[in-house]
Each structure stands twice: as structure tokens, then as C-alpha cells.
Amino acid sequence: AHGHAARLWDLTATDPCAAPRTLPHGNVVYQAVISPDGRWAATAGFDMMGKLWDLGAGTEPKLVSATVFKDRVLQAAFDRDSRWVAFGSWDRTLKLVDLKNPAASAPIELSGHAGRISAIAFSPDGNWLVSASEDGTVRQWDPAAPAAAPVVLRGHEARVMHVAISPDSRWAVSAAYDGTVRRWRLQLSDL
Predict the structure, then answer these.
(1) Is the pTM higher than 0.85?
(2) Spatial separation of the C-alpha atoms in residues 116 and 98, rounded to whole Å
(3) I need a surface site. Which of 60, 76, 102, 117 has the fewest CB within 10 A?
(4) What is the separation, in whole angstroms, between the first and last Cα of the chain?
């Protein structure tokens, strides 16, 4: 991401730097990610939008949806199967966009954090979306049941700024400004 746009380079081209494609925003683009299947790009920006781009729609990326938030959007993540894209915002919410029909589907809002969203990640098996927040909590969401209350993981004493999930989808790891790193079980079978 650079300035008010993210840029895409074709690494198979003879000169990949010759003609980057631009994914514009109205303010700083904080994050850009590409879906595992390569069809989609998602950008998160200070313009309070999470944007979804179709990369298979011809030579230029096509804007498919612009998910609006009430504050900056700093996080974007795709699940492994390219079924969902999630955006996380400083307005304390996450929004899920269904990639089966993103232009026609309204984003699903996930709320509950009392602080800005600082990190998000999908589990490799696609069963969980995990969010970290400046409220000191980590939340475990079920994308298949977005109306269900999340599991709230407490233990940090300061802002949680990072989250990652193990390759086997059994564990989440979070790091916070209190100087701690915590490991959380994600699977009930591990209890």
C-alpha cells in the first residue's frame, strides 16, 4: 500500500514494475491482502472503508464492494477457502463479507469489543475468526454462525495488538502491550 492507493504488480510480466494496477481509496491505505485463490484483493483504509476488488474481471481490478465503517479500517483477512473476507475497524466492529455474492450481500457486523480492533485472523480450517482489541481481549467468532456470541478470551492487562493461529487450527497466540504472549485453545476437543 502506498498513499491513497494500493498497487498490484504482475510478477509474471517481463517488467513487473512497468504497469502496476491501482486500488484507490480516499485516504491512506493501511493494509492490502490477496485471497488464497488469487481472485480477490481486500484493502483497508483510513477513509473508513474496507474494499473488495475482483482481480479476475479482466485487465483492471474491479471494485465489487465498499464496506463502510464509522472509523479507520486497519485490518483485512480472507479465510482459507476464499469464502469470507473480514475487515476490522477502530470503530470497535468487524464486518464479514460473503464472497459467494459480495455485490448483493450486506456485510455482517460483529460487535462486542470495547476498544479498537488491532488484529484479525481466520483459522486455517475456516472454523474461526479471531480478533484482538485495545480493550485487552481476544474474541473467537464462528463465521458460520455470525449471530452467535463470541467466546471472549481474557487475561491480558493491556492492549492486545497481535494475534495468530496455529497451522492445525487448535491454538491462537496473542501479544499485548503488557509484555505478555498468551496461548489460547480454540478447539473444545482440547479441553
Answers:
(1) yes
(2) 23
(3) 60
(4) 41
∠ Cα 135 25 27 (to 5°)? 60
The helix (run of H) or strand (run of E) holding residue 161 is strand 160-165
CA distances from 191 to 93, 137, 169, 188 (A): 29, 20, 14, 6
Helix (H) or strand (E) holding 168: none
Q: pLDDT (tens digit, 0 to 9) for every residue of the chain, 191 residues total?
A: 447 999 998 888 889 888 888 999 999 999 999 999 999 999 999 999 999 999 986 678 999 999 999 999 999 999 999 999 999 999 999 999 999 998 888 999 999 999 999 999 999 999 999 999 999 999 999 999 999 999 999 999 999 999 999 999 999 999 999 999 999 998 766 54
Residues, the chain: 191
- What are the two backbone dihedrals, phi and then psi, of residue 38, each rounded to the nearest 5 degrees? 80, 0
Distance of CA 4 to the CA centre of its chain: 19
- What is the rounded CA–CA span in Å between residue 89 and residue 73? 4
Query: Whole-angstrom Cα distance, residue 100 to residue 89?
Result: 23
What whole-number distance in Å separates Cα of residue 26 and Cα of residue 22?
13
The candidate with the shortest Cα–Cα distance to 131, out of 74, 85, 88, is 88
